Amino acid sequence: MIHLIFGAAATGSLKHTLSKKKEHQVIGFPIDFSIGPITNIHKENGIHHYFSWLKSSFHTVWGYLEDDQTTYHQSLQKLLEIGDGEQVTIWTCENATEQIGLRISCYLLKDKEVGLSYVNTFHAMNDYTKQKDVKMNIRQTGECNAEQLAHFQEHSTYPLSENMKSDYVRDGERLLNSKSMVRSWQNEEIVDDVETRDDPFILECAIRLHHEMSNHEFINPMRVIGEVVGNSEEPLSDSWIEYRIRALIHSNHLAYEGNLQSMRMYKIKVV
């Protein structure tokens, strides 16, 4: 059984979960398909364009994006080498990046005679917690622990119907030709969105923190990032939020003091 999964945390958890089952192989994709240019991200020119945009836009730890690019290359190659007769499970959740991963994977496997199944960890978690009389809504597969993933693999894996496959293949082809920079998950569909999508919510969080920390004129952007991550309905990365904070500074919605070359070297306040 080959498992395709999206996000570094989810990949690490699933590899740990299945580490003692030698018949299972995990192929993980570390990138966020919901942010940045994904045109032809299954080809060399598209991969180069995507990671060039990340390197010019995000302030990350040195070497981090290079490692992600190498891992993505390796994972894509493993997916393309999947042979006829294999059984493939695609893991997804109710968010844009994992739903895009599901669709692109189906498109790349469309000409292969493989058995395709899926696990939707959002719905699987709802079923799992019903038995325990608790309610737990997750935003991404990376929030699941090893025990939960093992249960989902055993009890929440379902075959993809021919109609589902054809729909996902069509969507995957459209996404690989999309020129959008931001994509959202709305009403069970991937929709193109504006790059300023999260700006009002980031500003709202910054204003709320300013009220709570009224004795500070400027506040650390890391505090704002933590507030946004903790309260956002969609999973958002630190790097994306910090990128939008700098955009809000350049559009004069936020003021700053310090050096914008690193999120640890400046502070912000609402204008």
Q: What does it look like?
A:
With 271 residues, the chain is α/β, with parallel strands linked by helices. The protein has two domains: 2-190, no CATH class; 199-270, Arc Repressor Mutant, subunit A. 47% of the residues lie in helices and 16% in strands. It is built from ten helices and nine strands. It has helices spanning 8-17, 44-57, 64-80, 96-108, 121-130, 146-155, 162-176, 199-212, 221-231, 238-250, and strands at residues 2-6, 25-29, 87-92, 115-120, 158-159, 182-186, 189-193, 254-258, 266-270. A five-stranded mixed beta sheet has the order 2-1-3-4-5, sandwiched between helices. Strands 6-7 form a two-stranded antiparallel sheet. The longest helix has 17 residues, at 64-80. It is globular, with a radius of gyration of 20 Å. The mean pLDDT is 93.
Please give a handful of descriptors for the protein shown.
single chain, 271 residues, alpha/beta, Arc Repressor Mutant, subunit A, 2 domains, 5-stranded mixed beta sheet, two-stranded antiparallel ribbon, 9 strands, 47% helix, globular
